[in-house]
Design brief:
The chain is 38% helix and 25% strand. It contains nine helices and eleven strands. The protein has a six-stranded mixed β-sheet.
Length: 248
């Protein structure tokens, strides 16, 4: 059988899942590509990969979308690495810069602005150094590892997962394993087990990547990120997709 082409986000939040994949036999059945979220999404949409840990906002764009397994990048409270950063309070923000690396987060902030914060702002794209665009009344959505550094340099941080939970009383799913075709059930079971294996080795993952960012990675992996794709997270995911349909 041809190897299954897998894409995954290259951020720190995926490392526990990738640790499990890399330390299980399923690694011999796949070809793995790592990149930032919007690029992994593009690869799945274009059929370059078969399954990816992709921003859930692309699910409606796929002719076939199959959620694979029981693991995701989710949050039941503050996620720390997906935030709207600003030097002024929400009431004074006039412009929001959207992170080019994201698909789901930029959709999420626009839903929250409209329905939760009830605020109209000007939306502009980010440049390659989004941190420099945060000044005056201009705020920016920054995701992934780059977000950690901004917690100390920006006066205001609006955590998007925390806001979603307050708004909906449901968890949020940023990314899930999604296939663009039906995959063999034996592979899905092995792949799912590999993800679970990684979560049994958080200490090893933390030790491997500690020092990369100024943040407690053990806390990040055990409190900020919630990896199990349970019924509540699926409910939050489908509610988010409903909002995307509403705002088409």
């Amino acid at each position: 059988m041809d190897k299954i082409k897998v894409g995954a986000v290259s951020y720190l939040n995926t490392k526990p899942l990738l640790y499990g994949i890399g330390h299980s036999d399923v690694r011999h059945e796949i070809v793995l590509t790592e990149d930032y979220p919007s690029n992994i999404a593009r690869l799945l949409l274009d059929g370059v990969i078969d399954v990816g840990l992709v921003p859930v906002a692309i699910i409606p764009l796929l002719p076939q979308a199959h959620i694979v397994g029981h693991y995701c990048i989710g949050a039941e409270g503050p996620v720390a690495s997906v935030c709207l950063f600003s030097q002024v309070p929400m009431s004074n923000i006039t412009t929001v810069v959207l992170d080019y690396q994201s698909r789901t987060s930029v959709q999420l902030v626009q839903i929250l602005l409209k329905y939760y914060w009830k605020k109209e702002v000007r939306i502009v794209p980010a440049n390659n150094n989004v941190a420099t665009q945060i000044n005056g009344t201009t705020a920016a959505v920054v995701i992934g590892d780059r977000a950690f550094a901004l917690h100390n340099s920006c006066k205001y941080c609006y955590d998007l997962a925390e806001a979603w939970v307050k708004f909906t009383h449901l968890p949020f799913v940023f990314a899930a394993w999604v296939a663009n075709k039906q995959l063999p059930e034996t592979f899905v079971q092995s792949f799912d087990a590999a993800n679970g294996l990684g979560l049994q080795h958080i200490a090893e993952v933390t030790n491997q990547y500690s020092g990369i960012v100024n943040y407690d990675l053990n806390y990040y992996y055990t409190h900020n990120i919630s990896y199990h794709l349970d019924k509540q997270k699926l409910a939050g995911l489908y509610l988010f997709l409903d909002y995307l349909k509403k705002d088409k």
